[in-house]
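Here comes a specimen:
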Amino acid sequence: MLATSQALEKKRKVEAAHAANPNASNLVEFTPLGAGQEVGRSCMILKYQGKTVMFDCGIHPGFSGVNSLPYLDGNEDVDISKVDVALITHFHLDHCAAVPYLLSKTPFKGRMFMTHPTKAVFHQLIRDFARGAKGSSDEALYTEEDVDASMDRIEVVDFLQTLEVAGGIKITPYRAGHVLGAAMFMVEIAGMRCLYTGDYSRVPDRHLPGADTPDVQPDMVVCEATYGVSRHLPREQREAHFLQRVTDTLRGGGRVLLPVVALGRAQELLLMLEEHWEAHPELQAVPIYQASGMMRKSLKVYETYQEMLNEDIKTLFMHENPFAFHHVTHLKHAGQFDDVGPCVLMATPSGLQSGVSRDIFEAWCEDRRNTVILCDFAVQGTLAREILGGPKDILTKTGGRKKLNCSVAHISFSAHSDYDQTSTFLDEVKPPHVVLVHGEKTEMMRLKGALEKAAAEKEIPRSVYTPAILQTVKVTREPLRVVRVAGQLAEKPPHVGQHLKGIMVSGPAGTGAAGSGAAPQQLLLHPNDLHAYTRLHRGRVTQRQALATDRPFSALRLALEVMFEGVEGSGMLPVSGVKHQRREDPQGASFQGQQLHEQQQQQQDAGVGGGESEGQQVKVKQEQPDEQQGLLAARHEGQQGEGQAGHHESGHNKGADDKQQQQQQQQQREVTAVRVGDLVTVTYVPECPRGTFGTHVVVEWEGGRVADMVADAVVAVLLRETGDVHGRVAAADAAFLGAR
């Protein structure tokens, strides 16, 4: 009862919302479940025309346990069980680390897609993440077994490959340029296009090409606002600044700590350091350490998917493997690290919140000769973000305090879009609606103002939105409906401006197969083609009306012929007389018209009996049902078996008498009917000898716009001809009840 009342309450809310806004079905609804006015736990919901799409499902690096998850159950308008498809842009934890939780701990039943490199790295990265959570004091979100099980539900898609899923959702991934395999997803539903950029960069670096520019205009772009209105320095200047800072620290006897994400910027920095060490022999005595096992394993993925790298790196692969570093030592465990003298150490995570990078930072932070260089975006709530503020000391993992004497530099090699990239990109794709996500509130508001101002100056129509978590952006968009015409309606190609009339079938009925998993078609069909293209069948509604009369059949027939012959605009409507057998019981009037109509309909379907000449008399034989025929045949055979022993002659005489008696009864029970325009049957029923009902006519037709009009006219003619039959009201009522 509770579940029923809740369902009814939900239904009432939906109906009330529809009554308040009848155009609700035309609303595009976008709701951040994470990364709304924050950086971390990216997870977005797009709803339109009854379809629901999820973009990304990550965790927040500044929180732990369930607090790091998106708000998967925090909005009554978002039902995770109704999500049709989830699209994961890339393998960074803040975009994908909640995927096993989504697949194993929630009612999510949809499909999930990511690119080939993303899936390859995802398994290794998230399995390490789950393994590391075992020793944590926080509750583990999922197990390694959950990660393995999730791989069976993740499907892959290639760049620029368009797939149609969930009965009308088209998805197309474009290169995002952020990390290997990172994608921007274009989603199209009923003609509405939404481009979700995820993390993207339009500037090529040492190993990746820049982001693609879609060749179609989206109605909405959901864009990262990580750097707000900031502008990145040219790559050459950043590299020169970075290498100079590293060299100066080493020459001063210090150590350099590079907190990084295991995949993405780490490979970029290793390529840079390898090239610089190769060009400067004096530095080759200084070791470069890489302390991430995940980083080491991922290099195989880069070698496997080298065709997705940029042209420069592909050219290097023709001669040697550029990721086979000569001056970099991969540390398998902490015991291999000899913390003596100057060195460069690259470790994860980039936010210094835990792991090797945190341990090394706490060991080195009090030495003024050392330098920490943050090369990625520092998320709010992490230690990396804290030390950028220049505190005098820091809180260690054990709860103590340590002086922060080392140098801290922020030289961003983060492959995120800056203001110039974002504004240029939006000017090129020209979306009327822009939704900013994945950015802190202050930076997002600054970017919103700058984009709106730039659009106004260029006279580009543009609305910019900055939703917080669980705040829904609603935009009206008329859907584009595409209907496939098939069957009789498609025999002749339609011309421009032509109106096609038929029955539109939408949903599983139009697929022709139940449970096939194929996208349902929207079909426009002639009613006669329903059975051929769908599992539907054409229904018939037979209407019947009885009218008491004291006029002879000949007078009624004459009145109908006078009225309906030569009607302009609808062709000749011939009137045909037919003989029809009526059952003897008082309810006979209720069956006779139906039998006549069904037999005539069967003749039409079989292609016979469709063109009777006026006045043609047709005898209609009443057929016994199959069961009765079988019983009669069996009874007749039994009688024959009994009569073979000497009663053959008497049986023959009895059969002849029965036949003659049936013929006489049939002649007595024959009634007369006429057909008007092959649409309406008028059956004349004489008065019942027992007085059960009086003389009347039964008007019978198959419901339809044209047939209803003809039937109304026929009834009007009959009423005029019959006039006011005094004292026949009761008889008419009885006839009507009998006709029912």
User: Anything to note?
Assistant: The CA atoms of residues 685 and 696 lie 5 Å apart.
